[in-house]
Amino acid sequence: MLLSGLLEAARLLLTGDQDTWSTIALTLRVSLTATVVALLLGVPVGTALALGRFPGRRVLLAAANTGMGLPPVVVGLFVTVLLWRSGPLGEFGLLYTPTAMVVAQMLIATPVVAALAAAALQQVDPDFLLQMRALGATRVRALRALLAEARLPLLAVALAGFGAVVSEVGAAQMVGGNIQGETRVLTTAAVLATSRGQFALAIAFGLVLLAIAFAVNLLVTLAQQREARSSVP
Amino acid sequence: MRHSIPALVLAAVLLLVGCGSNADPAPPAAGPSAEKSLILATTTSTQDSGLLDELLPQFTRDSGWQVKTLAVGSGQAIELGRRGEADVLLVHSPAAEQAFVAEGTAGQRRLVMHNDFVLVGPANDPAKVRGLDSTRAVAQIASAQALFVSRGDDSGTDAREKDLWKQAGITPAGSWYQATGQGMGATLRVASEKAGYTLSDRATYLAQRGTLQLEVLSQGDARLLNVYHVIEMTTKAGDRVQVDGAKAFADWIVSPSAQQQIGRFGQAEFGQPLFTPDAGKAEAGLGP
Predict the structure, then answer these.
(1) Are residues B179 and B90 in the same domain?
(2) CA angle, corner A180, sides to A175 and A185, nearest 5?
(3) Between chains, do A32 and B17 touch, taking CB under 8 Å as contact?
(4) Is residue B77 part of a domain?
């Protein structure tokens, strides 16, 4: 069965099957966009949680950590209720569109990014910021230096966020509706193929998804390791 | 070197995403997705059998309306209609549909097509129901306490199954009666793996027969008739209901060209059509 899945995957990719390629493209568009937005939101939050000293910081940190375990289906349900026609944001007609999927996946990824970014930044030598300030850096420049110092772990945080959303199916199914040519991504396509008894096809989608996740991770890891080598004194 | 790496990653990402956009089939009309796009709530049987995959592209070509299909089961489809979250329904749960239309938020309800349900089970038939009519068959399954896998999801098939038990005067309960809460394809697979009986629409069963270890054991009696209707929603259910789109779809699916397509569906692959087109006929005259 695995072998026939592998052969089916190869066949779909090499013959340029349009459905498959558009599904792949959509998967990447949705999950990469969601990851980027999650980084833009999550890294500042994580930085604040790591470095800030305000009441409730530790509670928020615990909340962010808990957020890493948010079930995608629950997030999907929450976003559906917001976006459906009778919901508060119903006038935008966003349900069952890729935009809704990006929103849902962004909500799943942001706590992951925030919690892991906070952990990554807390790994940096606590005296680092002090040193920067002592050398005369403004707060902003010191922060930028800190983020640059932690860039390798932060790349890993980005990959973790991407991995969390590219593999989820509950939210994508619920807010996207798995509509052919519009909101069908590799995970929801695999579930549909399974429910139709097309097991080789389902496995093929699964293998393609793994290949894509691997490719993205490889690209970023190569960049990360090259940075690591070039920054060794 | 340091600057080229993020640039490299960014370029690769943009390339992939850009390639993807070009590989897309013609995207829906620019603008908000609500433009010329309607939501069809339907059963899992119309999707799992592949019928909609064949019909809908033709409808889009003919009418210009993009269809967002939610294959959720008749019960959930009716609920979506009730809330105005769907524009048109294609369902097969007549009693529930009639109750729903009586509520007043739905528009026209028209007959589209029919096929039949079949009682399937393992080849060795532990409860010895082969050839019996559906009521006697379920009664025998209950008394033998043979494994029966139910949809349990308020779908049209589930409603019919519950009706069969009621006709036989039985309330199914016990470890032999198991509900999956899932669509027809998934339920058939569970029944196949566990060597249990289940009720299925003929189309989904035929479409998946190759991967199942189940045989048709009871078929053909009047209680197994499976009738599909199309129900248009109105703005009474919700302000954003696309009444034009609903009418366009309903009019199209009962039109001669669509009905012909329905009548041909499955012929090549299974040697028999999976659905019988019925638009315009009197319901009382329908036979299995």
Answers:
(1) no
(2) 60
(3) yes
(4) yes
Q: Map out the domains of chain A with their CATH numbers.
A: 2-231 (1.10.3720.10)
Burial class (CB in 10 A: 0-12, 13-18, 19+), B142: buried
**B20 and A CB contact within 8 Å:** yes
Asked, for residue B7, whether it belongs to a domain, the answer is no
Residues of the domain holding B129? 116-224
Determine the residue among A77, A85, A149, A230 to mutate to test chain B binding: the one whose Cβ has the most chain B Cβ atoms within 10 Å. A85
Instruction: Tell me whether 0.95 is exceeded by the ipTM.
Output: no
The nearest CA of chain A is from the CA of B214 a distance in Å of 13
CATH code for the domain of B132: 3.40.190.10
The total number of structural domains that make up chain B? 2
Q: Is B236 on the interface with A (CB under 8 A)?
A: no
Q: What is the pTM of this model?
A: 0.83
What residues in A contact B85, CB-CB < 8 Å? 84-86, 95
Residue found by looking up tokens 């993020």 in the block: B6
Q: A93 and B32: CB-CB below 8 Å?
A: yes
Encode pLDDT of A125-171 as tens digits: 778 878 887 888 787 888 888 888 888 888 899 999 999 999 999 99
